[in-house]
Design brief:
single chain, Dihydrodipicolinate Reductase, domain 2, 2 domains, 8-stranded mixed beta sheet, 6-stranded parallel beta sheet, about 30% strand, globular, alpha/beta, Rossmann fold, 14 strands
């Protein structure tokens, strides 16, 4: 399998983490980065040994040597940048949430299919071995009938009215920034959408939510989710059945999981990886492109549309 040339859209923190992990992907080559200023692009390119640095994103999209684009800008810029990349004939891996509305997501998935191009939401958690092991235990009946799913994800982010996280003009708020993780992780283990949704939230002075609790059910499974900018939550996922339970520490970046029967630990898994884990999604994108596939069966377009639907429902209840 030949290496694919990646074009990185953004020189920010998440883009840096992704580029750091591409060193663990045998099928990836860091070919170009684009930022708002040439200085930022040059600095980032030097740090991660990237061949080309561009001021402005369209120059990257127009480079005929770029095979796939990774987009890691603030949420509200995703739609236009994904659209422009697809129109330029590039495959796209876009950070979550892929858009800020259901309609935007639907436009992009339809466009990607019409162009015959891969479009995948960068939900790296779905590709982590520990999450997949937990799913295997669940499917094997190791905890019996699933009864509860509990997931939370939160880190304290100091209030800054002009910062991306708290700025409503930049699609701020903990729901889009962190809340997609509990929703997506829960969906990974559930067999149907969450219904009977109840939401309790705190709204800060800029008008965005900085703490959210979500409760509902998926058929006979009770679902409890939370996200926060106010404090560090446990960031664990719990899958609780009538015969045992599974614990996934730091579920959003999981490297291990543990299986209990009542109070007894009966099985454990650790992937012992050296990477952060972003390279798993990059490998999946490369594999799909090499095989001529335009949609992942792990993070499907329907997954992305479901997440947008869920986020909109929660927003409406805040």
């Amino acid at each position: 399998m030949s290496k694919l040339n990646w074009g990185i859209v953004s020189a920010g923190r998440i883009a840096a983490l992704f580029c750091q992990d591409l060193a663990f992907s045998q099928n990836s080559h860091l070919y170009a980065v684009a930022a708002r200023t040439q200085a930022d692009a040059d600095k980032f390119a030097k740090q991660y040994q990237i061949d080309n640095a561009y001021q402005g994103y369209q120059r990257l999209f127009d480079d005929p040597n770029v095979d796939i684009v990774y987009i890691a800008t603030p949420h509200n810029f995703h739609f236009q940048q994904v659209y422009d990349a697809l129109m330029a004939g590039k495959h796209v891996l876009c950070e979550k949430p892929m858009t800020v509305t259901y309609d935007e997501c639907q436009i992009l998935t339809t466009l990607a299919k019409s162009k015959g191009l891969l479009l995948m939401e960068a939900l790296w958690t779905y590709f982590l071995p520990a999450l997949r092991q937990a799913k295997l235990w669940l499917d094997e009946g190791r905890i019996g009938q699933l009864k509860h799913v509990k997931v939370d994800f939160g880190y304290p982010i100091p209030f800054n009215a002009d910062g991306r996280e708290y700025n409503p003009q930049l699609a701020g708020g903990c729901l889009l920034d962190m809340g997609i993780y509990p929703l997506a992780i829960a969906d990974y283990f559930l067999t149907s959408d969450i219904s009977n949704l109840y939401v309790q939230a705190n709204v800060c002075e800029t008008g965005v939510e900085d703490d959210v609790i979500m409760i509902g059910n998926s058929d006979d499974v009770m679902v409890s989710l939370a996200t926060s900018f106010q404090c560090r939550l446990s960031n664990y996922a719990y899958l609780i059945g009538d015969k045992g339970y599974i614990v996934i520490p730091d579920a959003f970046r999981a490297s291990e999981c543990h299986l209990y029967h009542l109070d007894d630990l009966v099985d454990s898994f650790s992937d012992n990886r050296q990477s952060l884990g972003y390279h798993f999604e990059a490998d999946e994108a490369c594999r799909l492109i090499e095989q001529g596939q335009i949609e992942s069966q792990i993070v499907t377009h329907n997954h992305s549309l479901l997440f947008q639907s869920q986020l909109a429902r929660v927003k409406a209840l805040i």
